[in-house]
Amino acid sequence: MFYEMHKIATDRIETAYYHAGKAGAPKLLLLHGNASSAKFFLPLMKRLEDRYEMLAPDFRCFGDTEAKPIDATRGMRDFSDDVDAFVKAMQWDSFALLGWSMGGGVAMQYAIDHSEKLTHLILEAPLSPFGFGGTYDEDGKKLTPAGLASGGGCANPQLIDALVSGGRAFIAQTIDGVYVAPPYQIAPELKEMYIDSVLQTRVGEGMYPGDKQVAAVWPFFSSGTAGVNNTMSPAYCDLSGLADISNKVPVLWIRGDKDIMVADTSMMDLAHLGALGMVPGFPGAALCPPQPMLKQTRYVLERYRENGGSYEEVVIAGGHGCMLDNEDAFTEELLRFLS
């Protein structure tokens, strides 16, 4: 086996992680997304094993890491602090950081908190710097009240049911239709491994998806204060400080051209779904405009450039997990950027 799975007790949490590659080679840390685990990086780690030493930890509430509750009022900081405790325990003090989806948000938070430890930052289909749902315009203006149409109440009820019941068919459909772009099909043995890892997502109080609060306006809920999805609420999540970090490492923003998760017209954004007539009672785009996630990321990265940093935006064929359905192009772009 080219990788090893271990657990390590840090000063915050017992963290499960995969280790692969060459000792003494340049270091690369990999952070997974929501409703997934570090297992999604194993094919990439195989491709890079001769070039890098790699670590891929599971976040709390995912994979084999300890399932501690999450204080969402800290935004991404519970995750970021866990990552820092992990790299300290592994005695890593200089490395490239790749974050996918929600992990891209954690990577941005980590760069804000610890830019001095980074050599490169790779954001694969990242969470908008202004969170997921509940904002509009490129500069992340908040809907009122803050946290409206975001957080734990936005989770797909079918996904929650599948996680609780072990519903493999729905998880498979989600992987086939969101994580990769149809008609691409992941190899059966890999897909079964990914389904297993998604089903390890811990559902419950303070975990996935998180709580919600009643709101007086459509969609009649706003984000709660605990759990995974609430960490991405704009009430608590503001990663625009990335533009101001002191160590301006090079940034690669890479995404798939058929990503329906993180997009200016995301099929997971309640406001966009409402505008399409898929969520009853939508009050109109004037009162609840869809979130332009890509424009928001570009806005913050342009500010990063204006402040002396550099970034590249690369679009390749693929879905939300373009490292999965376009391994060749993704690996080529990553190696080019890190060289």
What would you say about this model in short?
The protein contains 10 helices and 12 strands. With 339 residues, the protein is α/β, with parallel strands linked by helices. Strands 1-2-4-3-5-6-11-12 form an 8-stranded mixed beta sheet, sandwiched between helices. The protein has a two-stranded antiparallel ribbon with strand order 7-8. The chain has a two-stranded antiparallel sheet with strand order 9-10.
What does this structure look like?
The structure is a single chain. The protein has 339 residues and is an alpha/beta fold. It has one domain: Alpha/Beta hydrolase fold, catalytic domain (Rossmann fold, 3-Layer(aba) Sandwich), CATH 3.40.50. 30% of the residues lie in helices and 18% in strands. The chain has ten helices and twelve strands. It has helices at 42-48, 77-89, 102-114, 157-165, 168-179, 188-198, 270-275, 293-306, 322-325, 327-338, and strands at residues 3-9, 14-21, 27-31, 53-57, 95-100, 118-124, 135-136, 141-142, 212-214, 221-223, 251-256, 311-316. The strands form three sheets. The chain has an eight-stranded mixed beta sheet with strand order 1-2-4-3-5-6-11-12, with helices on both faces. Helix 2 crosses helix 3, helix 4 crosses helix 5 and helix 5 packs across helix 6 (188-198). The model has no long low-confidence stretch (mean pLDDT 97).
